[in-house]
Design a protein that fits this description.
- It is built from two helices and eleven strands, in the order αβββββββββββα.
- It is mainly beta.
- It has one domain: Jelly Rolls (Sandwich), CATH 2.60.120.680.
- The strands form two sheets. The protein has a six-stranded antiparallel sheet, with no helix packed on it. Strands 1-4-10-6-7 form a five-stranded mixed sheet.
- The termini are far apart.
């Protein structure tokens, strides 16, 4: 049966470049990969991206650390990402054990983490051969260089794979919100004043002798 961990954000930043939680000391290797995400603009100032990784039979038993990097500039933003890894047993199982999924800002020159990492939420079921499922969300994040990190272990005899997606939307800053609200309020007041100043039509008079 799979084991799962949730690492608090404050503690996760200290583990970002260590072995993934639960990794065995007897593992022959830890696979480390870093990929820049291909971003697809959404037409509304944000973008979407899909990503993932695959592992072969020769990598069975290995731990892995995957970094998927992206850059957001000019405005604060909201971001949400989800990840899944299914199990196939037909024959020679394909299965991964995802142990953590996190989002953090980093310095591209030194690779140092800026602030605390946002720890993902493990939504994986408890049954045998359950699908690994994780999600992570960050709101009102400062622009900069970011990474999504996936930690895990290849536990299938024939390897395994995972797929994930990312969506990012810009968040107007406080002055922009203030201007928007002021504009809406001003328009509403002008409309009400226009109604108050508009000449009122008198009801038609009754015909003489009516």
């Amino acid at each position: 049966m799979k084991r799962h961990w949730i690492v608090p954000g404050a503690a996760l930043s200290a583990l970002l470049f260590a072995f993934p939680p639960g990794a065995s000391q007897a593992q022959a290797q830890t696979i480390e990969r870093s990929v820049e995400l291909a971003l697809a603009p959404d037409g509304a100032g944000g973008f979407n991206a899909v990503f993932g990784d695959t592992f072969t039979q020769a990598q069975s038993g290995a731990g892995f650390v995957d970094l998927f990097t992206f850059l957001v500039s000019g405005t604060p933003f909201d971001a949400s990402a989800s990840l899944t890894s299914s199990v196939l047993d037909s024959p020679g199982s394909k299965d991964l054990q995802i142990t953590s999924f996190s989002l953090y800002r980093y310095d591209p020159q030194t690779l140092d983490v800026i602030g605390n990492a946002l720890a993902g939420i493990d939504l994986t079921g408890t049954g045998e051969n359950s699908v690994d499922s994780w999600t992570v969300t960050g709101l009102n994040l400062a622009s900069g260089a970011y990474a999504l990190r996936v930690d895990g272990e290849v536990i299938g005899a024939a390897g395994g794979s995972f797929g994930a997606d990312l969506t990012v939307s810009p968040v107007p800053d406080a002055p922009a919100y203030a201007l928007l609200l002021a504009g809406l309020l001003g328009g509403a007041l002008a409309w009400r004043r226009g109604l108050a100043l508009a000449p009122k039509e008198k009801p038609p008079g009754r015909a003489a002798g009516g």
